[in-house]
Amino acid sequence: MADSSKKIIDLVYPELSYKIVGILFTVFNELGYGYQEKYYQKAIAKVLGDNKIYFREQVYLPLEFNGEGIGNYYLDFLIENKLILEIKRGDRFLKRNIEQVYSYLKRSNLRLGIIANFTKQGLRFKRIVNIK
To answer: Rounded to an integer, what distance in angstroms lies between the CA atom of residue 12 and that of residue 114?
Structure first.
């Protein structure tokens, strides 16, 4: 029995997230494991386009401090100007990759990022929310 006093927290962009994760599984199921990130990226871009989902690749995002440029970020994908998708190869989520996506979210003022790991054991993904 549900406790009505518990607060329900809504997922950020649930429909878009669901579509993106489905696309990631489609790509993994077709290609499998062992390719360079750039090939997964090309395959994901093709499926996003086939599904008429607006996206941009390798989106330049400058990092500034006191009005001066101090660095550059490049997002693997910016999807519908709402969601950042970063793709990786490896068997686990590395802390630096999670921190990388969180930095992208903070810098861009976006709310949701997804890291997709293409692993020997299958596709793994993690949602990262910018709690601002």
So the answer is: 11
Tell me which amino acid residue 105 is.
L
pLDDT tens digit sequence for 8-23: 456 788 899 999 999 9
Q: How far apart are CA 25 and CA 124, in angstroms?
A: 9
Residue type, 109: N
> Mean of the pLDDT values across residues 94-118?
92
Q: What is the mean pLDDT of the chain?
A: 89
pTM of structure: 0.87
Strand segments (E) across 1-132: 55-65, 68-79, 83-89, 112-119, 122-129
**113, 101 contact by CB (below 8 A):** yes
Residue 7 dihedral angles phi and psi, to the nearest 5°: -85, 130
